[in-house]
Amino acid sequence: MMENLKAITKDELLNEGEKLLTGGAKFITAVCRDLGEQLEVTYFFSLKGGTEMYPLRYTVNKEEEVPSFSQITLATVLIENEMKEMFGLKVKDLALDFGGHLLLAQDSPVTPLLKTTGKTASKGGD
User: Fold this and answer.
1) How far is 31 from 120, CA to CA, in rounded Å?
2) 3.40.50, 1.10.238, 3.50.50, 3.30.360: which CATH number matches 6-76?
3) Range list of H helices, the chain
4) pLDDT tens by residue, 53-62
């Protein structure tokens, strides 16, 4: 078990994350993991010069929309675009949406890190 991990719902992300930032935490990164029918998303915050980590984790069905934390801090905009692009996480209200082309080219595979999709089609057509 990860130390200080707080399980939340997707609807609690903005409020819980904002509490951490207001308390002096800094956003570090976020990660996404394919659990089969669901995606697990963990946002990491640090306090005390990086000596304490505070992860917030939620799990959603792959078709659910999730709020963008970029409404609170732009520091999340790149990682949220990456999770959207690589795993198909349906992030809504991104402050800056790269439309699936932050890291992937027009003819790249769709959601290449989503292990359960089996998709090999390219975005560019056929």
Assistant:
1) 23
2) 3.30.360
3) 13-22, 77-87
4) 999 999 999 9
